[in-house]
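Input record (one chain):
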Amino acid sequence: MRIKLPFINKIFVIGFIDLNRIVIGLDSSSFCEEGEQIIVLDYDRLPLEEVREDVKRLQRDFGLPTFYIFSSSPGNYHAYCMTCLKFHEVMVIAFASKSDRKHKNCLLYNKISTVRITRKKGKPSKIKFVEKIPHKGQFREIPNAEEILMYVLKNER
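The corresponding structure, as predicted from the sequence alone:
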């Protein structure tokens, strides 16, 4: 809503926030220094075995360390690799994955990757840890990555 008051040469914009519509997301820059981010992949409507195979291929092809797989709802998964990389490296890996096309486009547009970790109108948050896919990659994992990720995902809802 815009209001122009006749005695002031300014326009005031008033906004209202519906607190029931606010959601919290975990973004890929949350754990790294400026200019770097972790890998966050969003797999929609894919069988868990296909997600596993895709993650293992990414680990092998790009020398990535451990991935942590979470179920966001039946048939939908989030995959996190807790290593800090430059944006262009994350882009190459994301676009090489079988992750959701809309999620990749958001990464390209926003320069960060975000996944919802709280409930949204009509969609409860049912994020559950599924498994850890270890791999000794060439990149260093964030210290205490598993503990940090588990804490954030279990306490931010």
